[in-house]
Specification:
alpha+beta; two-stranded antiparallel sheet; 5 strands; peroxidase activity; peroxidase; OsmC/Ohrsf; OsmC/Ohr_fam
Length: 132
């Protein structure tokens, strides 16, 4: 599965319009980095990908099992250590309105790790760049 996004940045520092199909979003940098803080910064977008994919993957499984879970909360903290080339994603998952057994929670942990974005982040990654 391939996806395509296009980011366009004009002369307004770091205010970037991103388009994917019919969907649009804005990214920006915080004020202390010279931006206007009008949208998620790129690191927040990366963490958002893992958080939203995890929540959707869990919801699909929970619905298929017909378990009663009112809300799934996924919080992702991303720490980047450029000098050691290490990035650490800390993912905290909680369930509201649910009475899940230890066995169910164990299974949901496995399902969370099966989220497609989680799998991509664990794979070898290549970035191929072309100027046109």
């Amino acid at each position: 599965m391939a996806v395509t996004v296009k980011a366009s940045l004009g002369k307004t520092k770091y205010y970037t319009e991103v388009v994917a199909g019919e969907n649009h979003l804005i990214t920006d940098e915080p004020i202390d980095k010279g931006g206007q803080n009008k949208g998620f910064n790129p690191f927040e977008i990366l963490a958002t990908s893992l958080a939203s994919c995890t929540a959707a993957t869990l919801r699909m499984y929970i619905d298929r099992k017909e378990w009663n879970v009112e809300n799934i909360d996924v919080e992702v903290e991303l720490e980047n250590f450029p000098l050691t080339k290490l990035a650490v994603f800390k993912r905290n998952i909680s369930f509201e309105g649910a009475d899940l057994s230890e066995e169910q929670l164990k299974r949901l942990h496995t399902i969370a790790d099966a989220c497609p974005v989680h799998k991509i982040l664990l794979n070898e990654i290549q970035i191929q760049t072309k100027f046109s």
